Amino acid sequence: MEAIVIGAGQAGLAMSRCLTRRGVGHVVLERGRVGQRWRRERWDSFTLLSPNWQTRLPEREYTGADPDGFMTGREVAAMLADYAAHTGADLREGVTVRAVDPDPAGWRVTTDHGELTARAVVVATGDLDRPAVPALAAGVPAGITQLHTRDYRRPDALPPGGVLVVGSGPSGQQIAGELARAGRTVHLAVGRHKCLPRRYRGHDTYWWMDRMGTLVRTRASLPDPSATRTPNAVLTGGTRDLDLHRLVADGVVPHGRLVDVRAGVARFDDGLPAMVAEAEDNAVRFRAKVDGFVARTGLEVPPEPARLPRPAPWARDADGELDLAGIGTVVWATGFRRDFSWVHAPVLDAAGEPVHERGVTAAEGLYFLGLKWLHRRSSSFLDGVGADAAYLADLLADHRVARGRAHTGARCPSPTAPVTAA
């Protein structure tokens, strides 16, 4: 076998399609069903942050009746299942990979259904792997239900009582807002985050990022590589902005960053005013970038008055402690971590993160795909993973041709024309 692709989300399926177009034989292994995380690890009201028109994979883009709408998690899962069926992938669902090891044939993949070997392996398990829950969760009283955003579904599925949501990224703020609108008493522990307007000067923010080339900016172009580790911008599907000002108006009680849970009391730092100011500054800078782009290009769009930073007296007055006696649930909106300990090759750094260049590791025939900032800002997005998949598929096809020439001494025909992402 020439290649094994691990994972059947957007990354694995995009890789499969690109390999098929280049005539590279392969299988795709998926621990659950196609689009497993979209199907089983999103809350009921979840939607994409990007509009439907930006749902683009190799040889597939959105053609429905609502290009400016936002797909739900279930709709994304259905779209990926349909994509897999029409791309003709050799897909093996319900197969859990236990280990990837070097082998005389290239690589040996051990699964709960046996072993497979191939010249190349593409790890396409995505960027959202395992819930990251801080150690201080151990201090939460035993009678309080704890769950990660991966396991949250809807307000009425939670036990009675107030809810403490820890984390203020898009997931944390969306869930906090939904719970407050459902009549729950909601407290939000706020960490670093970035605000963006949902729309500006007549267009969606993703329209502007697409037009300005923001999403295809490469990792190598960043003056500071640490910029890839900045928080995700807070948005929600629809036309309304999502930020702490809106949540406070909806009844959410904000606090600073959670720093300790002890003796039934949660304690927060005093950094909330600075967090709010930093988040607001991101939105101000984004609008300024759009204004500059419009001025340079002469684009005809409606004007919009400048928006000054909004006062946030509630941030200054936020309580530093919360008695958890009235809390029935803690929702950890604290993100995910990646675990590649099952990849037995010297390609991980001290933190367990893959060391690669555009997904290519120092171990011949071992690749990664679908990671945040793998090459571009959009590398982990539905709209961006296809370009990275095409790049890696070209490399695999070129290696196959080179090996064929070495064995036969003949000139091999070039592979099928490459697929490029829209």
SS content category: alpha/beta
Spatial order of strands in the largest sheet: 5-2-1-9-24
Distance between the termini: 30 Å
Helix content, binned percent: 25-40%
- The CATH architecture of the largest domain is 3-Layer(bba) Sandwich
Number of helices: 9
* Number of DSSP strand runs: 24
Biggest β-sheet: count, sense, barrel?
5 strands, parallel
CATH topology tier name of the largest domain: FAD/NAD(P)-binding domain
- Arithmetic mean pLDDT: 92
- Spatial extent as radius of gyration: 23 Å
- Shape descriptor: globular
Low-confidence segments: 404-422
What top-tier CATH class of the largest domain fits best?
Answer: Alpha Beta
Strand residue content: 15-25%
Overview of this structure, please?
With 422 residues, the protein is of the alpha/beta class. It has two domains: 3-129 and 338-408, FAD/NAD(P)-binding domain (3-Layer(bba) Sandwich); 131-332, FAD/NAD(P)-binding domain (3-Layer(bba) Sandwich), CATH 3.50.50. The protein has helices spanning 10-21, 36-40, 73-87, 170-181, 205-212, 244-249, 272-297, 313-316, 385-408, and strands at 3-6, 26-30, 56-57, 60-61, 91-93, 97-103, 106-111, 114-118, 120-123, 130-131, 145-148, 162-166, 186-189, 194-195, 199-200, 203-204, 233-234, 253-255, 258-262, 265-268, 321-323, 327-332, 336-337, 366-368. The strands form eight sheets. The protein has a five-stranded parallel β-sheet with strand order 5-2-1-9-24, with helices on one face. A five-stranded parallel β-sheet has the order 11-22-12-13-18. It has a three-stranded antiparallel β-sheet with strand order 6-7-8, with no helix packed on it. A hairpin with a 2-residue loop joins strand 6 and strand 7 (106-111). Helix 1 runs parallel beside helix 3 (73-87) and helix 1 runs parallel beside helix 9. The chain is globular and about 65 Å long. This is NAD(P)/FAD-dependent oxidoreductase.
